[in-house]
Structures are given as structure tokens and as C-alpha cells.
Specification:
Blueprint lengths: L2 H13 L15 E3 L5 E3 L2 H13 L6
Antiparallel strand pairs: 1-2
Length: 62
């Protein structure tokens, strides 16, 4: 391993335990307004699966 590779591995090891915030947004078309003016959830099954996947990944809010 040359000097550049050694210094890079040291940097990567020290950065490993730091957290970086990632912001997740709901899809724009997740909700719609129906004929009565009430909000309605579109594609509820797909949205449920997506939210469960985010929860399993450790996301704390959207």
C-alpha cells in the first residue's frame, strides 16, 4: 500500500462513526383532494410498504 492509500484508509476509519442527516420527503402525488374537498391517500399499499422500509432503515421522521 502506498502512502496515499494509507492516509485514505485512516480518514475513512475516522469518518465511520459520524452521522450525517438525510432528509426524506413524501412523494408529491401521495395525497389528492377528492370531489368533496377531503384529502385522500393515493396508492396506500405502496405508501405503507415505503414507510415500513424507511422505519426499518432507522428513519425517525419524514
Amino acid at each position: 500500500m502506498d502512502d496515499r492509500e494509507k492516509s485514505r484508509s485512516i480518514i475513512l476509519k475516522s469518518e465511520k462513526h459520524k452521522r450525517v442527516p438525510i432528509f426524506v420527503m413524501m412523494p408529491v402525488d401521495a395525497f389528492a383532494i377528492d370531489a368533496t374537498g377531503s384529502p385522500r391517500i393515493r396508492k396506500i399499499k405502496a405508501l405503507t410498504v415505503s414507510l415500513k422500509a424507511l422505519k426499518l432503515a432507522g428513519v425517525h421522521g419524514i
